[in-house]
Amino acid sequence: MSFDAFGLHPQIVAGLKAQGYQTPTPIQKEAIAHVMAGKDVLGLAQTGTGKTAAFALPILQRLMTGPRGVVRALVVAPTRELAEQIRVVFSELGKGAGLRAASVYGGVSMGPQVQALRGRCEIVVACPGRLLDHMGQGTFSAKSVEVLVLDEADQMFDMGFLPSIRQILAKVPAQRQTLLFSATMPDQLRGLAHECLKNPVTVQVKHTEALTTVTHSLYPVVEHLKTPLLLELLKRIDSESVLVFTRTKHRAKRIADKVHEAGHASASLQGNLSQNRRKAALDGFRSGKVHVLVATDIAARGLDVSQISHVINYDITDTPEAYVHRIGRTGRAAKTGDAYTLVTGADADMIRVIERKLGKSIPRHTLEGFDYRAAPKPHGHSPSHGPQGTPAKHANPHRKFWRQRRRPR
Ligand code: AMP
Question: Domains along the chain?
Answer without folding.
Answer: 3-205 (3.40.50.300), 214-406 (3.40.50.300)
